[in-house]
Every structure is written in structure tokens, then in C-alpha cells.
Amino acid sequence: MDPTTSRSGPQPSVPVFLDGATIASALTAREAVAAMESVLASGLDPELSAPRTRMETDGGTFMQMPATNGQYVGTKLLTITARNAASASPVIQGLYALFGGHDQRPLAVLDGVALTELRTSSVSAMGAMLLASPGPKRLVVFGAGVQAWAHIMAFAALFELSCVEIVGRNAEAAERLVKNAEGIGLAAAVVGPGAVRDADLVICATASPDALFDGGLVKASAVVVAIGSHDREHRELDDALLARATVCVESLDSAVREAGDVIQAMESGAIAGPAQLITLADLVLKRREVAADRPAVFKTTGMPWEDLAVAAAVYEACMSGAGSHRSGGLEMPTGQLDGTGARH
């Protein structure tokens, strides 16, 4: 008999709760990348992915990111409360609800901020791996927040890094990031924006509304990943870089709606139009090739299908041989979610 049925009729399915520590230990960046590549290779078309929705509230913004693929359905729910920056509460808080099976039963609720941290850095690493040439890499990171550190960890796991250099407006936070990087065996230093001249990989993980550096300094073999902006008004990269680079995005649809770097470059003529862009699916399915004589840019805004792919992989990892993750009921975390600097 199906365990969710009885003689008295169907019984409700009880989802498990997967907290931040569980998510971090369940899946490596490499495994998250493999999960997303597998979804693209199986034929999912990101151009058809449902867009995120926003609703303004008395406290800030409420967002939802639904997706479906195969046996899984899920959505991420986030609140963004800017005034929390002056209090003990995180600015970004959220949950991910995962459903699945032939009857679409609720399977799990995941810490939405921890899932976002893993997904964002893994998407960036996937794009960089598809665009970069082999060999040791000098990594320059703009930003010194949660996502900067998540990206350093992911890229350290997936690339051979000769050194990590941090460009940050907050000197104390930048120095702390250097010490953290040295703590995992990386050579690290705080530098200025001009360090992009010698960088092989550049990660932009800031809330800046304006370009962070002169794109003309970036060498032809470099890969630049920009994750910070996700609206039309913000950008981290200038026209000088976007005009000379191969520009890769998660989807054409999301890029022209949300990627300020790309939107503003198309408005100025630095990018001729959407046809000039290539997508992650193009690279995974080998539909397009990347020119070796120019820099490559990967501009991401985050998409619902990515969250679903990673959430499903986390759930499967936890449920296969990790029975300790199960509970008799839905267990909510006792601590607060630390969403400072997290992408959504």
C-alpha cells in the first residue's frame, strides 16, 4: 500500500526541512554544476522558464521564483527588507518549497538563502568553466560579502587558482576575506581595480549601480563573471568590455528583462542586440563556439530552473543514505538566516 494512503483515505505527506548546514554538506559546487548541466542536456529550455515575480509590501519586497522539470516542481519565496540592515534581522530571508512524484506531493522545505548561495556560486562556476581556457588562474573578486566568499570557495574547488585578489570598498571586510582565503591555502591580497589587467578570472559580486573598472584593461584570454545586478538600472560592467567581449547569459529572455549590464549596452549600441548573445544552453549543447581572441563575459541574474535543479539534487543527496536528515514533522530552524549580501 502507498504509505500516504490508509483505509480511511489519503494521508498528508510530511515534508522534511533542510537547513543551511545540511545544504552546505549535502552538495559540492561540482555536484551542483553537474545537476544544472544535466538539466540543460536533458532538453530543458531556459527561454521558457517562468519569470520571477515581485510584490512590494509594507516592509520591502516579496519575490517568488517557480519552476518545473520532470518529476519535480518548486518555488523559492524571498523577502527583501532593506531596513533590516540596521537591525539584527537579515536583509534577505527565504524558503524553498519542493514538490515531486507522480502526485506532486510536498517533499521538502529548504533554507532559501543557503540554497541561493550554493546555486549562485555554482552557476557562475559553470559559466566560467565553459568559457575559460585550461591552466592556472589568477582570480580577482570585486566585493567582500557573502557571495564573494561563496564564489572563492566554489572557484577554488573547480579551478587551479594561483592567487586570489580582493577589491572591496570596505577595507576591513576585504582583509577578512583575504585571511579566510589564506586559511584554505590560497595566496591572497587586497588590491585596486587595476588588478583586472592581469586577471584570468574576474568575479563581480557587488551592489554597485555603476561599472566597477575600465573594461579596456581586461586581457583577451580573461573570463569576467558579473552577478551583482538584476534590474535595468544597475550594472557592474562597462560598454568598453561588453563591446569587445563574447557575452554569455543564462537566457535571452531573462537578460533583456533583468540584466542591466546587457540592457544598457544594447541601448548604447555596444551590443548590437540579443542575437549577439550566447546562452548557457548554447555552450552545454555545443551549439555555439567561443572566440579565443577576445574576453568572455558571463552575466547572470539567477533563474528559477537553476534553483529547482540544485534543490532537487540536495534533496536526493539527503534522502539517499542520509536518513538522519528526515524528521517526524516539519522542523523549522532555531537561528536566523544570514542573508547579508546574498543574491536572489
Structural description of this entry:
- With 344 residues, the chain is an alpha/beta fold.
- It has 2 domains: 134 residues, ornithine cyclodeaminase, domain 1 (2-Layer Sandwich), CATH 3.30.1780.10; 180 residues, Rossmann fold.
- Helix content is 32%, strand content 23%.
- It is built from 10 helices and 16 strands.
- Strands 11-10-9-12-13-16-14-15 form an 8-stranded parallel beta sheet. A 6-stranded mixed beta sheet has the order 3-8-7-6-5-4. Strands 1-2 form a two-stranded antiparallel ribbon.
- Strand 7 and strand 8 form a beta hairpin.
- The chain is globular and about 65 Å long.
- The N and C termini lie far apart (41 Å).
- The C terminus is likely disordered.
